[in-house]
Amino acid sequence: MAARSLFGKFVVAALSLCLVTAGGVGVALTSGLVTVGQPTVESVRTDWGTVNAETTEIGTEIALNNPNPVGVPGVIDVRYEIGMNDVTVAEGASENVGLPAGRSTIAVSTEMDNRKIPAWWASHINNGERTTVSVKPTVSLPPFSRDLPAQTRTFSTDILAAFESDETRTMTAGNRTVLRVTKTEAAWGEATEAETPLTVTATVENPTSGEVVFSQLGYSVTMNDVTVAEGTTDGEVRIGPGETTSFGIDSTFDNGKLPAWWVSHVKNGEKTTMDVEFYALVREDGKTERVALPFLSERAVFTTDVLGGGRTTTKTVPLDSGASFRPPQLRSVESEWVVPETGNTGIRTRAVVTNPNEPGSVFAEHLSVDARYRVLMNDQPLVEGATTREIGPGRTELELSGEITDREIQRWWVSHVNNGERTARVVERDVTVDAGFARLPVGGAAERGTVATDMLGPVDPNSTMPLSVAGERIGSVSNTRAEWGRATMAETPIRSSATIRNDRGGSVRITEIGYRVTMNDVVLSDESKPKSVEIAPYSETTIRDTVPLDNSKLGAWWKTHLRRGEESTLAVSYYVVVEYRGHSERVELDALNYEKTVTTDVLGNETA
Q: How many CB atoms lie within 10 A of CB 174?
C-alpha cells in the first residue's frame, strides 16, 4: 500500500536515517560479515483518532520490513510539528523509537489543538481557499540531532462556487411569478481569527406591475448543523415594478464556532453540509417567525482529505426548506357599472381571495390585503377604487367601488375625439398581500384594449342630392363633408361643409342654416343661425359651418350609454333655408343627416 500521509513518510525517512547513523556507531556493518539492506515500508495507515471539543488525534501505523539481522535499538527520538498555512496545529514527539530486524509495526500518535482551527480557517479563506499542509521533523540519536527537510502538500476547496449561479429561479405568489433571481454571486471578505465575512449578491427581476417589498431579511449559515453565522439586514429591500436590480446580503461567520464544526467535519468523514439560508422576519404577538426564502438560499456539500492528500470536492444540492409562507391566490375579479338615478355613475368590483395557510399558523390569521381597481382611458383615470382589510384562512370576498364624475367623462371624451376617435383602455386589478415580512403583488397583469369609434363615418363626400324649391329642381348639393375640430372641455366642434350648385338663370340665396345632434336622445346641439350666401346663376358655392357640441351634456349621455349596455345612437340632422324667385323653403341636407350606432366595452378586453 502506498504511503497515505506526509507524517507517515517522515517517520519512515527518520528511521532509515537512524539505521544508517546507528550502523556508523557500532553495528557490525563495517566488518564485512553483514550485508546492509534498505528497510522497506510495507504499508502506512493514517487516520483521525479520538475527537473531542479540545483536540483531534492523528494516529499513524507504519508496517516496516528490516531485512538486516541487526536492529536499531530504541534510542531514537523523533520530534515534529504539523502546520496548515504556517499555523502550527499540532506538535508531538515519539521517543525511544527502535527498528527491530524483520517485520514490525510502529504506531505514532499526536493531537491537534482544535483552538487553532479559527486561525487556520482564516488563512485558508484569505489564501483563496487553499491550504498547504507541512510536517517538520527533527531526529535525535545521541550524540546527533538532525532536522529533516519539511515535506508539504496543498489542498484547496471551492465553497463559493456553490453560491455562484446564472440559473433562473423564481418566487411565486398566487400562481404568479413575482420575482426572478437571474444570478447569484458570493465573495469572502478579509477573514480574521475572530470572524469571516461572506457577502451573497442576487440579481433579481420584478416582472409584475406592483412593487415587491421585503421589510427585513435575515440569514443563517450552518455547517453540519453548527450555526456559524446569523443576523439580519438593515432596512427594507424594494424591487420596483418591471425593475431589475442587485442587492447584497452581508453575513459574518463567528470563527469561535469553527472548532465545534471541525469536530463534526472529522467525525463525518471530512464531509460538511453548508447551508446558507435567507428568510424574512414576521413579528406577531410579541413573537418573531421566520419565513424561508428558498429562491435565495443555497446548500453546498464539500469534502476534504487533509491526511491522505486525496481529492477535495464541492457541489450544490437541493435545500429542503421548512414550512414557508403560502401566498393567497386571487380567484376571480368581476366588475359592473352602477348607474343611479341621480349623482355620479360608478363601478362596483368584487374580488375573491383564498388564503391557503392552515388555521392557527402565523400566516393564516393576520394577513392584510390591499385591493385596487383602476380604469385608464388614454392615460386619463376614469375610475378608481381601493380597499384594505385583514383576511383569515379560506375564502374572502372583497368589494371595491369608485365613482365617475361628469368632468372625468368630459376629459375622456375630449381625449377620445382628439386622438382620432381612439382610446387606449387599461384596466388594472391589483391585489397586494402584506404578510408582515413582505408586500407581494398577487393580482393579474393589467388588461389592455382599444375603444375605437367612427361617429362621423356615414357622411359621404361622393354623394350628390338634388336641390329643389316649390317642387322645381334648381340645382344640386354635393361634396358634403364633416370632421371633428379640436375638442375642449367646454365643447366639441364638428366642422361641416357642402357645395351647392345653381343650375338656373336666377340667383339662389341661402338665408339660414340649422342643425341638431343627439346621442341617445340627449341633445348635444340644436340651433339655427342666419346666413347670407348668394349663388350666382350657373355657378356653385361651398358653404361651411361649425356645429358646437355642448360637452356639459356628456354626463347625462354617459348614463344612457351604460343603461343601454354601452351602446349609443348618434343622430345628426342639417337643413338650409333656400330662397329662389320669391319662394323660400327649408331643405334637409340628407347627405349630412344620419344615425350611427356605436358600442364600447370599457370593462372587457375587446376592441369596440
A: 21
Q: What angle do CA 167, 171, 175 make, to 5 degrees?
A: 125
DSSP 150: P
Range of the domain at 284: 159-316
Structural domain contains residue 227: yes
Contacts of 463 (CB under 8 A, 6+ apart): 478, 480, 591
C-alpha cell at 15: 528511521
Q: Could you give the angle at the alpha carbon of 216 between the alpha carbons of 215 and 221, nearest 5°? A: 155
Domain boundary among 451, 477, 494: 451
Whether 85 and 182 map to the same domain: the answer is no
The answer to whether 484 and 492 have CB atoms below 8 angstroms apart is yes
* Mean pLDDT estimate for the chain: 82
Q: Which residues of 539-552 are buried (b: 16+ CB within 10 A; e: fewer)?
A: ebeebebebbbebe
Q: Does a structural domain hold residue 185?
A: yes
Residues 257 and 352 in one domain: no
Residue 559: all three cell numbers together: 348614463
Nearest to 398 by CA among 362, 442, 339: 442
State pLDDT tens for residues 345-379: 988 888 888 887 777 665 555 577 878 888 899 98
Answer yes or no: do 78 and 102 share one domain.
yes
Q: What is the pLDDT of residues 181-230, one digit of tens each?
A: 888 888 999 999 999 998 888 888 988 877 888 777 778 889 998 999 88
- Which of 287, 316, 345 terminates a domain? The answer is 316
Length of the chain: 608
Question: Domain check: are 168 and 307 in the same one?
Answer: yes
Residue 319 corresponds to which cell in the numbers above?
435545500
CB 403: neighbour CB atoms within 10 A?
15
Q: Are residues 140 and 46 in the same domain?
A: yes
- Long-range (24+ apart) CB contacts under 8 A made by 460-463 are 460/591, 463/591
CA–CA gap between residue 172 and residue 152 (Å, rounded): 51
What separation, in Å, do the N-terminal and C-terminal C-alpha atoms of the chain show?
86
Q: Dihedral angle at the C-alpha atoms of 25, 29, 30, 34, nearest 10 degrees?
A: 160
Give the burial class of 329: count Cβ atoms within 10 A of its Cβ; 0-12 exposed, 13-18 middle, 19 or more buried. Answer: middle
Q: Which distant-in-sequence residues (6+ apart) come within 8 Å of 359 by Cβ?
A: 365, 392, 393
* Cα 543 to Cα 498: distance, rounded to the nearest angstrom: 6
Instruction: Report the C-alpha gap between 256 and 320 in whole angstroms.
Output: 27
- Output DSSP code: residue 165: B
Whole-angstrom distance, CA of residue 267 vs CA of residue 261? 10
In this prediction, residue 319 carries a pLDDT of 65
CA dihedral of 255, 261, 263, 267, whole degrees rounded to 10: -160
Question: At residue 125, what are phi and psi to the nearest 5 degrees?
Answer: -65, -50
pLDDT(284) > 60: no
Q: Helices 554-563 and 406-418: crossing angle, nearest 10°?
A: 90
Q: What is the mean pLDDT of residues 581-601?
A: 91
CATH code at 525? 2.60.40.10
For residue 607, is it within any domain? no
Is 139 in the same domain as 195? no
Nearest to 386 by CA among 369, 370, 403: 370
CB 605 within 8 A of CB 447: yes
Task: Cite the beta strand spans of 379-418 per DSSP E.
Answer: 380-391, 394-404
- Residue 34's pLDDT band (cuts 50, 70, 90): very low
Question: Is residue 30 predicted with pLDDT exceeding 60?
Answer: no
